[in-house]
Amino acid sequence: MIKGTTFIKLVKSVADLAIHQLKFATNTIRKRKPRFLVLTPSVFSNQTILDTALKRLIKIRISTGTDYSTLMQIYGRDGYGLSKLQRRPDIEGFYAATLGRGLVPLILDCGGHIGMASRYFSETYPKARVVSVEPDAGNIAQARINNAGSGIAFLNMAIGSETGAGTLVDPGRGNNAFRITPDMQGKTAITSINALLEQFGGETGVPFIVKIDIEGFESDLFSKNLEWLDQFPLLVIELHDWMLPRSGNAGNFLRAISALDRDFVYFEENVFSISNRLI
User: Fold this and answer.
1) Is the same domain home to 231 and 263?
2) Whole-number Å distance between alpha carbons of 170 and 137
3) Are residues 46 and 180 in the same domain?
4) How many beta carbons lie within 10 A of that of residue 140, not counting itself?
5) How many CA atoms lie within 13 A of 164 on its CB side?
6) Of 76, 100, 117, the domain-final residue
7) What is the spatial distance between Cα 185 and Cα 146, in angstroms, rounded to a whole number?
């Protein structure tokens, strides 16, 4: 027999899924066909998503409600998709041109969680080199499962303005909200984007997309050593002033980005920063 609370969760998850699928059908009728259709209620660990563009099923394993919320943000609402951007042809043109020169577009997923964004990028840009950086070991283990055989490089590290060490903090917001604090005695290694470019760029890797969702540590990331910043045609970042009121946490990012010739587009929780110099 199903317990009452479990039954309520099941009903709610089915209802939420039905609403998502109704929106998908409505947009399809209006000829704004979304790319992804989530097929599985949130109560199931094994999730199935239909990629209507590539005409195949995506299998993702989740463990928590937080995981499902992230799945819906990435796939249900196509959070990292370029269809809402007028600069989409420019960005995709850069990808094609890089390949045409015999080089490899490089995508950095900073704050990789359980690997869903990395998987999205690797399937959308299959000839790119994708690197996922995530400080929590449990999340990295799950990310490897969700991207088995993909060729994505997974680093169990945090990302910051310079290499060092830190302590991982769980503020109780779910497994996609772990934060890092600098601590030379800490057990979590911190790397920098400059270091990643040196390690994974080499002679053939060309910066393409950097996605940043690091739960407020962007204040440190954008504080110094920003040689990498305008090398990426597309930067996608979630800022966290909403989570850290009165901290001015986004200040370093805003100061750094405002000095460059880049477009600034806000969509839901993400900023899309697009280079006017490179593309």
Assistant:
1) yes
2) 13
3) no
4) 20
5) 15
6) 76
7) 32
Do 104 and 170 lie in a common domain? yes
Domains of the chain: total = 2
On whether residue 82 sits in a domain, the answer given is: no
pLDDT tens string for the chain (279 positions)? 456 666 666 667 777 776 777 777 777 776 678 999 999 999 999 999 999 999 999 999 999 999 999 999 999 999 999 999 999 999 999 999 999 999 999 999 999 999 999 999 999 999 999 999 999 999 999 999 999 999 999 999 999 999 999 999 999 989 999 999 999 999 999 999 999 999 999 899 999 999 999 999 999 999 999 999 999 999 999 999 999 999 999 999 999 999 999 999 999 899 999 999 999
Structural domain containing residue 178: 88-275
76, 111, 133: which is the final residue of a domain? 76
Here the tokens at position 127 are: 């000839």
- Measured between alpha carbons, how far is residue 116 from residues 37, 110, 219 in Å? 15, 12, 24
Which residue is associated with the tokens 């269809």? 83
Give the separation between CA 71 and CA 62, rounded to whole angstroms: 9
Report if residue 208 sits inside a domain: yes
